[in-house]
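To make this tangible, this section ends with a sequence with its structure tokens:
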Amino acid sequence: MLIIGIAGGTGSGKTTVVNQIINKLPHNEVGIITQDSYYKESKNKSYEERSKTNFDHPGAIDFDLLVVHLKELKAGNTINQPVYSFVTHNRTDDTIVTHPRKIMIVEGILILSNPELRDLFDIKIFVHADSDERLIRRLKRDIAERGRDMEEVLTRYQTTLKPMHQQFIESTKAFADIIIPNNKYNTVAIDVLRAAINQQIL
């Protein structure tokens, strides 16, 4: 099993890079795990309390469960990946049955900040994008997909997103094997990745 970690700031284009990588690979040989599914469960808190959670701090992520799940997949076992709702700021009662694949892609802003998780990655990627571009993408996504308004998104960006990015995310670029500048479609980096992946699965 080849495990690829794809990190980068919010709105940097990680999902686009994931899609570009898997676009020409056999569907049944690639599995995807998103860090967003592993936000800690907090059903004992009110919605108001949950909405004040700093979701861009490593402490918000259940890294222990994510590490256990990756190790289970590497051992050939199936896992039940949690499902997280950004509307309610909590895990749902649903899970996603995830089978081991030749290639497992783990995607998330903080995945390179955890040493134990980082050690499980065979290839570590950091997707870089200009901070203004990331903010614009975050605004569009949170308003369209997560029921937020502009003031809420901007306030969160100023009070938590930006400082957390500078403290916990940008520095993890140093751990990356490959840094992809994603201000435009980067075909060279994607082709290099595909070549490395194909060597593993052929």
Observations:
- The chain has seven helices and seven strands.
- The mean pLDDT is 83.
- The radius of gyration is 17 Å.
